[in-house]
Specification:
The structure is a single chain. With about 210 residues, this protein is of the alpha+beta class. It has six helices and seven strands, in the order H-H-E-H-E-E-H-E-E-H-H-E-E. About 50% of the residues lie in helices and about 20% in strands. The protein has a five-stranded mixed β-sheet with strand order 2-4-5-7-6, covered by helices on one side. It has a two-stranded antiparallel sheet with strand order 1-3. Helix 1 runs antiparallel to helix 2, helix 2 packs antiparallel against helix 3 and helix 4 runs antiparallel to helix 6.
Length: about 210
């Protein structure tokens, strides 16, 4: 069933998704501050400060990632440096189970293609739920940059229903804050003239983002 979603609903669900990512480290910062206020023991103060520093770095990394992956990040039609995308992606992945590698030339790429690859990384995390490696390869094609992502790890899988969500055809025709991200990814791909494909072999899921014919 083809999804019919308004711009207002899309924005609201994406905001919910971003808040879900940010609330955990922000909550941990609050917990650390409460420990500092209530417990005078030196070891607890050290624990609280470590928690605050770690959580603050995590919250900052997630916000920087979201700024490019979901936000305006420049004027309409602007290009984005793939080096910036690599930097925010690696910062985001520090709090995930999988390790990220990034290969390819540093380019200025149309904004929607950069947003697309960052959103594909989020899907890749779900493809290796027990951790592993996520290898991003950027290819400089004369028709525009293309991406290949290989997700390798134990019990690697194509996330349930993600291909239909990428196509904008969820089985029941509805989405929520959890499923909106792959829907948004599919919208980015279509607007960027990109065709997405996913395949699995053994413990590796392969995602290709190729220029549409």
């Amino acid at each position: 069933m083809t999804l019919n979603i308004s711009a207002h609903e899309l924005a609201a669900l994406l905001c919910s998704r971003i808040c879900h990512d940010i609330i955990s480290p922000v909550g941990a910062i609050t917990n650390g501050l409460e420990v500092l206020e209530e417990d005078g023991a030196e070891d607890m103060r050290e624990f609280a400060m470590d928690l605050i520093h770690k959580s603050a770095r995590q919250a900052s990394a997630k916000l920087q990632f979201a700024r490019i992956a979901f936000g305006a990040a420049g004027s309409v039609g602007a290009d984005i440096d793939t080096g910036d995308a690599e930097s925010v992606a690696k910062g985001y992945m520090l709090s995930e189970k999988a390790d990220l590698s990034w290969e390819g030339p540093r380019l200025l790429v149309p904004k929607n293609r950069v947003k697309l690859v960052l959103n594909l990384i989020l899907i890749s995390i779900s493809a290796v739920p027990r951790g592993g490696t996520i290898a991003v390869r950027l290819e400089d094609n004369e028709k525009g940059a293309e991406f290949v992502i290989e997700c390798t790890g134990p019990h690697a899988r194509i996330p349930n229903g993600v291909e239909a969500l990428l196509d904008g055809t969820p089985p029941d025709g509805t989405v929520d804050a959890h499923s909106i991200q792959p829907v948004y990814t599919g919208i980015l791909a279509r607007e960027a003239g990109i065709k997405l494909s996913m395949s699995i072999e053994g413990e590796q899921v392969r995602i290709e983002a190729r220029n549409a014919a």
